[in-house]
């Protein structure tokens, strides 16, 4: 139960247990109270019905006593108050009636004229008891209060009946009830331990009691005396012996007396306890089983949730590998697990798509930056071209004037030799200046001569022928590789100039590095829809800081008088004018490779151009380039 170590989970489990326990405890308490009330009501009913039954039995018995008394009152010996026969008669009756203590016959004055029990000499006096007076006075039977028997000397209640002759009351038959014996009869009634049956008179005095009668007979029960009829059928009372009981009451009109059956309240508890024990046992067992099952489920649930949480944490940490599908206890968790797996797959796809997009964007950014650099360079070169074109144009006119004037001077003869030499020098320098201006004009895309189909192999052959001797002198090996037969559409001289410029630069760079046995490789080959020419050398190459400036006019690293810085810029202008590309690369020899690419002329056009080079065709070829 590792999850119980988690504070919030533990708090939740406790709260849940309390939430379950509270109604169960309330239910149990309610059930226990209900059971107690029911058992108490049962006991009250039991006491009530036993009291009613016992009262009916006693009433019936008293009715029997009345019948015996009536019969005796008619007996001649009794009517005659004849002592001897009356004694025998009463003794016979007493033998058959154990509940009767004695039967005494007295005359109107109270003198004993017969007794079931032998009368001692001292007792044969005239004792006038109130009941004798009452019966003589009323001529009706009466029931006395609790008293001590005249002959027996025991506590008794007298039922007194008149004996009449010719409508005159001549005597009284007194039948004493044996209260002590009544106790043994009560004892025979099956009742729970500690129960008691009590007979009380209307003053609340105990007449008979099933337990400890000697102690309590004649005592008042303590309760305020209530007429037996008015006493409730059942009640809960503290008895004379200090025991609390449920009492069932039944009146006996013949008395009037009250017969009470008391069952201790503790009996109810004794009966309830096993029920309570059983109920609590079942509840405790059920609750324990419920808690165990809940904890097992909670454990399984938390274990699977934990696994899912680890999976999600892994995803959160960036690991998007597919989560492992494990066994889960219920449908909801399975759906949750499937949702996580789908989510991880979607995240993986999204991540891959994002990576692809980022890569594409990076490449696009690189292309864009390269294009931007290219545009900036072209813009700058174009601006320089416009500038150079203007300057060339402006310089050309005064230069023509100088050359014209010099030629005029030359013709004015005779001129001294010195002057002629000076004029010759002016002509040479002016011619050089014109050549520079022409080159500048070419840079600013002013083509010289009409274009035609050019075979780059012919161009290379021309250049090799021009430079062979010089290269041999410098000990530089020149190799040529031609791997295409395709032609380009351009001006032969211009392309030759560009190639020658590349070769001269390569030679000069090798020479500047004072390298013996240098190498130059000239290659021509197909590059897609273009034909490309490379001039590769093993010189020192170009410094990175110089790379951006290579194709700018007047950029040179050569000593004054040797380099003009126009070769590459003019070459750039020429190649650009044919829609080609020119550039520089480092090479595996550690030197420089300068190249240009020109669109290859299509074969059909090549054939027609070889026969006819009309301006019309020229235009159509131009547009196809
Ligand atoms: P110039 O040759 O008159 O200097 P270019 O325009 O032909 O003018 O060349 C410009 C510069 O480019 C050179 O001064 C040199 O620094 C560099 N360069 C050209 N070709 C090479 C090469 N093959 N190796 C090293 N540097 C070169």
Plain-language structure description:
By secondary structure, this protein is of the alpha+beta class. It has 14 helices and 17 strands. The protein has helices spanning 7-74, 76-79, 83-96, 130-138, 179-188, 213-216, 265-316, 331-411, 417-443, 456-474, 492-512, 567-577, 603-611, 615-624; strands at residues 100-107, 112-115, 142-148, 155-165, 168-178, 196-201, 206-209, 234-238, 244-252, 257-264, 452-454, 477-482, 488-490, 519-527, 530-537, 581-586, 592-599. A hairpin with a 4-residue loop joins β9 and β10 (257-264). The chain starts with 6 loop residues before the first helix and ends with a helix. Residues 607-625 have low confidence and may be disordered. Residues 501, 505-506, 509, 537, 539, 542, 550, 555-558, 563-569, 592 line the site of adenosine-5'-diphosphate.
> pLDDT average, as an integer?
84
Q: Give the amount of beta strand, in percent.
A: 15-25%
Regarding quaternary structure, how should these chains be classified? single chain
Rg from alpha-carbon coordinates: 74 Å
Q: What's the CATH topology name of the domain at 451-618?
A: Heat Shock Protein 90
Estimate the global geometry from the Cα principal axes: rod-shaped
> Mind telling me the CATH class of the domain at 451-618?
Alpha Beta
- Outline the low-pLDDT stretches: 607-625
What's the helical proportion of residues?
Answer: 40-55%
Amino-to-carboxy terminus distance = 82 Å
- The count of strands amounts to 17
């Amino acid at each position: 139960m590792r999850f119980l170590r988690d504070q919030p989970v533990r708090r939740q489990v406790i709260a849940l247990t309390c939430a379950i326990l509270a109604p169960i405890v309330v239910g149990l308490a309610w059930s226990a109270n209900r059971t107690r009330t029911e058992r108490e009501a049962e006991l009250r009913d039991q006491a009530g019905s036993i009291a009613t039954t016992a009262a009916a039995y006693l009433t019936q018995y008293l009715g029997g006593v009345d019948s015996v008394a009536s019969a005796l009152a008619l007996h001649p010996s009794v009517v005659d108050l004849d002592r001897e026969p009356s004694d025998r008669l009463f003794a016979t009756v007493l033998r058959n009636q154990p509940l009767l203590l004695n039967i005494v016959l007295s005359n109107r004055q109270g003198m004993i004229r017969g007794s079931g029990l032998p009368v001692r000499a001292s007792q044969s006096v005239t004792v006038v008891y109130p009941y004798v007076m009452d019966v003589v006075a009323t001529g009706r039977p009466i029931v006395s209060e609790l008293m001590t028997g005249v002959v027996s000397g025991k506590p008794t209640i007298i039922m007194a009946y008149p004996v009449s002759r010719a409508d005159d009351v001549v005597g009284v038959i007194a039948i004493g009830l044996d209260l002590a014996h009544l106790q043994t009869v009560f004892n025979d009634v099956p009742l729970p331990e500690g129960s008691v049956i009590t007979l009380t008179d209307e003053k609340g005095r105990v007449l008979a009691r099933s337990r400890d009668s000697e102690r309590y007979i004649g005592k008042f029960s303590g309760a305020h005396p209530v007429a037996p009829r008015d006493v409730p059928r059942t009640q809960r009372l503290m008895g004379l012996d200090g025991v609390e009981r449920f009492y069932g009451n039944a009146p006996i009109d013949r008395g009037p007396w009250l017969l009470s059956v008391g069952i201790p309240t503790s009996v109810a508890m004794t009966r309830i306890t096993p029920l309570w024990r059983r109920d609590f046992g079942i509840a405790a067992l059920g609750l324990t089983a419920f808690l165990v099952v809940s904890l097992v489920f909670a454990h399984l649930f938390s274990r699977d949730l934990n696994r899912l949480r680890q999976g999600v944490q892994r995803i959160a940490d960036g690991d998007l590998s597919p989560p492992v599908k494990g066994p889960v206890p219920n449908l909801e968790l399975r759906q949750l697990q499937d949702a996580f797996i789908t989510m991880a797959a979607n995240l993986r796809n999204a991540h891959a798509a994002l990576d692809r997009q980022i890569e594409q964007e990076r490449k696009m950014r690189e292309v864009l930056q390269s294009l931007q650099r290219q545009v900036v360079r072209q813009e700058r070169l174009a601006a320089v071209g416009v500038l150079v074109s203007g300057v060339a144009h402006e310089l050309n006119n005064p230069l023509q004037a100088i050359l014209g004037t010099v030629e005029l001077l030359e013709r004015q003869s005779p001129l001294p030799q010195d002057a002629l030499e000076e004029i010759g020098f002016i002509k040479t320098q002016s011619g050089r200046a014109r050549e520079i201006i022409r080159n500048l004009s070419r840079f600013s895309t002013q083509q010289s001569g009409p274009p035609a189909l050019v075979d780059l192999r012919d161009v290379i052959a021309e250049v090799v022928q021009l430079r062979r001797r010089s290269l041999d002198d410098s000990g530089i090996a020149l190799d040529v590789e031609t791997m295409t037969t395709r032609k380009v559409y351009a001006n032969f001289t211009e392309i030759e100039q560009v190639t020658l410029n590349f070769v001269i630069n390569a030679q000069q760079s090798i020479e500047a590095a004072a390298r013996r046995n240098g190498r130059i490789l000239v290659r021509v080959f197909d590059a897609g829809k273009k034909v490309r020419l490379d001039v590769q050398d093993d010189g020192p190459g170009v410094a990175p800081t110089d790379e951006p400036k290579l194709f700018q006019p007047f950029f040179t690293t050569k000593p004054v008088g040797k380099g003009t810085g126009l070769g590459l810029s003019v070459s750039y202008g020429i190649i650009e004018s044919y829609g080609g590309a020119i550039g520089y690369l480092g090479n595996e020899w550690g030197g420089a490779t300068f190249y240009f690419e020109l669109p290859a002329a299509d074969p059909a056009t090549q054939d027609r151009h070889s026969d006819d080079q009309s301006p019309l065709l020229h235009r159509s070829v131009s547009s196809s380039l």
